[in-house]
Write a structure and sequence with these properties.
Length: 154
Amino acid sequence: MLEKMGSFLSALRKAKGLSQMELAERLNVSDKTVSRWERGKGSPDLCLIPVLADIFEVTSDELLRGERINPVKTSPEDLRKQDQVSRKQRKRLLRLQESRFKNRSLLALGILFTGLLAAMICNFGFLRASLGFFLAVFFYGAGILLEVLFLNTA
């Protein structure tokens, strides 16, 4: 196990173009310590594993295993199927959002129309123009406020 990790460390170090001395300086250890790790005669302290992982751009798990962990490979056909499914989901979500927005806009429009009706009833039915005006302003303000809120949430 130590030999596998050592050879992996050696390969990573060489791939980065670092000498044992340069790696040792970065880790504040001696070059002989790095040599011992690479020969499988010892292993780095646990506190150095994350530092080594950062230097070599691998995970700590990969360092401890002594090999790269390959992600699950998917075929191009599987990727196309996943892409089609995600497109369908996006379209469905967009239709749902559009439907909600339309319904909410109709609600705001209904409030505006109610304000118009209330103003007309007060003006012509009760001959109270000032009451009709204030009711219309209230309903129009509420309708406009709701429409702005619905636009922001859409």
